[in-house]
Specification:
With 74 residues, the chain is of the alpha+beta class. It has one domain. Helix content is 35%, strand content 28%. The chain has 3 helices and 5 strands, in the order ββββαααβ. It has a 5-stranded antiparallel sheet with strand order 1-2-3-4-5. The longest helix has 13 residues.
Length: 74
């Protein structure tokens, strides 16, 4: 798991692959976001935000299709 070093965020880490990203939240839960069902631009944007360490949680919360597509993995 790669660290997400943004103390203001509820996210503390992430992992990513070609068409997916796992987002680990500070509450201990990990959600998977995958294309499909999400458009590939959502996954690409989420990876870019994760790598920049800023805006990932806000992006997920503001994009209902992303929020709804998250699948709990742990």
């Amino acid at each position: 798991m790669k660290p997400y070093n943004n103390p203001a965020s509820g996210i503390d880490g992430y992992d990513d692959g070609i068409n997916w990203i796992h987002v680990h939240y500070k509450n201990g839960k990990t959600y998977e976001y995958r294309s499909p069902p999400l458009a590939t631009y959502h996954i690409a944007t989420m990876k870019q935000l994760a790598n920049s360490q800023d805006g990932l949680g806000t992006y997920i919360n503001k994009n209902r299709d992303v929020y709804d597509a998250g699948r709990l993995v742990t």
